[in-house]
Amino acid sequence: MGPCAPPYQLSGADTNGQLFVCEIIGAGFGPPRHLHYEQDEWFYVTSGMFRIEIGGELFDARPGDSLFAPRNVPHAWAPTGDGQGTMVFALQPAGPFESFIRAGAELGRLPTRQEADALFEAHGMKITGPPLDVAKTSFDGG
Q1: pLDDT digits (tens, 9 = 90+) for 24-36
Q2: pTM score, two decimals?
Q3: Cβ partners under 8 Å of residue 96, min gap 6
Q4: Is 141 part of a structural domain of the chain?
Q5: E strands within the chain?
Q6: For the domain that residue 48 is a member of, what is the CATH number?
């Protein structure tokens, strides 16, 4: 369901469920605003530029910048500038995020809004709004 795919930098299996780390290769993709019920999320930009919204506050992040989104706080991100960039993110604890990625990939297409809502809820997350304006949607919004 997005640009984070195996192999992961660290999986839940690697860390006894305590941490999940993945590199995002941004190319115009951005998730809808969402929150994690039981996971904190950390972002670290390694190349390009990303707009990151956490709790309604916007940040323009460049290489070397990092931001933290506590659990239950809505957040979203999107590559800006030329739309290319890489960012490492970590979820603590790992939770069901790998299962979320697999389930999205198994769809073989972008989910409808109803499918996206169900997919997020089944994996401990909630969609709270649309993607950032600079982002292409990760679901069709229908």
Answers
A1: 887 777 899 999 9
A2: 0.87
A3: 123, 124
A4: no
A5: 20-27, 32-36, 40-54, 57-61, 66-69, 75-92, 125-131
A6: 2.60.120.10
